[in-house]
Amino acid sequence: MRRTESGPERLDCSAPVAPPVAPRLVKETVLQPTNTSRPDYFHKVVDCQWACPAHTPVPEYIRLIGQGRYSDAYMINWVSNVFPGVLGRTCDRPCEPACRRGRVEENNGAAPEPVAICRLKRVAADNKTDVKARMPAIAAPNGKRVACVGAGPASLTVARDLAPLGYEVTVFDGEAKAGGFIRSQIPRFRLPESVIDEETGYILDMGVKFRSGERVESMRGLLKQGFDAVFVGCGAPRGRDLDVPGRREAAEHIHIGIDWLASVSFGHITSVPPRVIVLGGGNTAMDCCRSARRLGGSDVKVIVRSGFEEMKASPWEKEDAIHEGIPILNYHVPKSFEHTDGKLTGMTFEIVRAVYDEKGRRTLVPTGEPDAHFECDAVLVAVGQENAFPWIEEDCGISFDKWGLPVLGKDTFQSTVPNVFFGGDAAYGPKNIITAVAHGHEAAVSIDRHLNREPVDRRPPPRVNLLSQKMGIHEWSYRNDVSGDARFKVPWAKAETALASIRVEVELGFDAATAFKEASRCLNCDVQTVFNRDTCIECDACVDICPMDCITFTANGDEADLRTRLKAPAKNLAQDLYVSAELKTGRVMVKDEDVCLHCGLCAERCPTGAWDMQKFLLNTAQAGAGSRDARKAHLEVA
User: Fold this and answer.
1) pLDDT band per the 50, 70, 90 thresholds, residue 102
2) What is the C-alpha to C-alpha distance for residues 45 and 24, in angstroms, rounded to an integer?
3) Which residues touch 197 (CB under 8 Å, ≥6 apart)?
4) Which residues are 356's β-sheet partners?
5) Average predicted confidence (pLDDT) for the chain
6) Residue 324 in contact with residue 227, Cβ under 8 Å?
7) pLDDT category, 237, cuts 50, 70, 90?
8) Roughly what angle, to the nearest 10 degrees, separates helices 117-127 and 70-81?
9) What would the pLDDT profile of 271-317 be if each residue is shown by its tens digit?
10) DSSP secondary-structure letter at 459?
């Protein structure tokens, strides 16, 4: 970090991001110094942000929540993930398994838990003030028209990114309100409709034209309407069926999970018979069984062909279902629907076990036990979803692969028709909301570049700021005390209240005091330990004070050897080594990034200031002037 008369200077790294981030070998004997100017090096150290498809700066907004700056925290979220209130209740949380907190607590208990990142996001959404004045200004019309098919998270993200740039964006959807599967497939006891209305409203209020109740029936017809670009974000609307004996005869009492959830959401279904079987092990199955429990099902069970750990449902979704008294039966393969005169009476299952070959491939093998029979009045089939594009004509130029998915350019989401783009579940099959948002951001960049006659496969690099957090000899601008608290539990509504109505939200959210304590568990992984070899006197004071034994001064070597010679062996190969250039004694400084607490003790102890704590902020490029080649040319001239 260079310094000017006015203080630390921001470092702007705009070099293209290359995949490898680990130190490179020189002549296969020693490791080359780590290039920390590459945006991806410190980005990877911020495990939660690295794991988030939309690269939300998690520690930044958690600090703001801890300070009670809820509106600021909300807007930082909004820029990246568009739906903080929705995601704060429903996100699949890829950030949490990656959270460093779980690794550094491994020796403190059998089940170390990450920071409650998702539920802290909800705190920002629930406690913010009015943020309408902080929404982007809308530029003058640029004369370009963009159509978005579907009003789900991917399409709305495209609309949010392009509308402020002056594009005329029209969103088509067959339903009366925007939201797509957020509205139709997530039960109200998990996500109140008011939250959906608020966050879709921010986007529609940007001048986006919403053609509600208007389902697109023909791609050819849509292209003839003169749109300059089309984005397809219609999701994966078809649920997989189960073709076993009795399916047709008892069809009246057997329902496809996602269609059934939509009917419940829109009020078409208000009750269920007492005995309900839910087939499937994903999040849709969990939503189905919990909904059925609230609609009158007294004997609701989930039956899955795989093992419990192999189920695709998020661990917390399975826990919630079990908490509500819903049993999950594993290793049961459906054999038949039993019926009498067209009325469903039960199901028969074959009991199996999992056998794995030398390559880890699973085969389900019958155990030889008698078939299991369960009586039921209704069955909800939630065994997967698939894409369906009957409205896209075969001769309109859009190619699909053998799985029925569109053939798209790598990272561009551009189809074989140059002005047609896909995103969300419509692009690569069913995923989740945060992935759909990430697709929308990238597709918006591609659309903007395409309509400005620039190649869409040239992706703009992120911009990075590193700023020292030093405020005194032993003072930092962030709270560097490491909290010893275990993860706090989110309070629930009382069971008799929650199970009595499908519209009563189960989770109540953290209050301000608990949110502060949970936010304090964050290790501030974005505040990086930055080493300056030129001022190091090799006194080893940092080695002595490091509570995690992360730092070692030693002779260089190849990576495999070096990892074994550190003060604490670096066994996690997924985490990089931070290696300095050669020091005066011929040694190198090696820091294992794996379990660093970012506590700053090394920088406080260092007598020469060779260590500094610098906040890393990564800004991914979004659609607009900053993502076009003209920006690069301007910078080169400057």
Assistant:
1) confident
2) 17
3) 177
4) 362
5) 91
6) no
7) confident
8) 120
9) 999 999 999 999 999 999 999 999 999 999 999 999 999 999 999 99
10) P
Residue 144: how many other CB atoms lie within 10 Å: 18
CA dihedral over 572, 80, 522, 190, signed as positive or negative: negative
* Alpha carbon distance 59, 480 (integer Å): 12
Distance, in Å, from the CA atom of 365 to the CA atom of 279, rounded to the nearest integer, reads 19
Q: Distance between terminal CA atoms of the chain? A: 22
Residue 378 Rama label (left phi>0; alpha psi -120 to 50; beta)? beta
Cβ neighbours around 352 below 10 Å, total: 20
- 538 pLDDT exceeds 90? yes
Nearest to 566 by CA among 598, 592, 548: 592
pLDDT at 3: 38
**Vertex 286: Cα angle to 188 and 289 (nearest 5):** 80
**What was the pLDDT predicted at 482?**
86
d(CA 85, CA 195): 6
Q: Which of 536, 577, 547, 548 lies closest to 560 in space, CA to CA? A: 577
pLDDT, tens digit, for every residue of 108-124? 556 789 999 999 999 99
Cβ pair 244, 161 in contact under 8 A: no
How far, CA to CA in Å, does 534 sit from each of 11, 463, 531, 610, 611? 19, 26, 9, 8, 11
- Strands, DSSP E only, in 70-136? none
Residues sharing a CB contact under 8 Å with residue 119, sequence separation 6 or more, in sequence order: 88, 490, 507, 509, 510, 518
Residue 417 · residue 292 · CB < 8 Å: no
* % residues pLDDT > 90 (the chain): 80
Tokens standing for 245? 């004996």
Q: Would the pLDDT of 532 be above 90?
A: yes
Q: Give the separation between CA 623 and CA 423, rounded to whole angstroms.
A: 15
Which burial class, exposed, middle or buried, applies to 629 when counting CB atoms under 10 A from its CB (0-12, 13-18, 19+)? middle
Would you say residue 588 has pLDDT above 90?
yes
Q: Give dist(CA 364, CA 355) in Å, integer.
A: 6
Distance CA(36)–CA(528), nearest Å, equals 10
CB 381 within 8 A of CB 257: yes
256 CB contacts (<8 Å, ≥6 apart)? 239, 240, 241, 381
The DSSP string of 334-364 is EEEEEEETTEEEEEEEEEEEEEE-TT--EEE
Cβ neighbours around 597 below 10 Å, total: 19
Q: What pLDDT is recorded for position 306?
A: 94
> pTM for the full model?
0.90
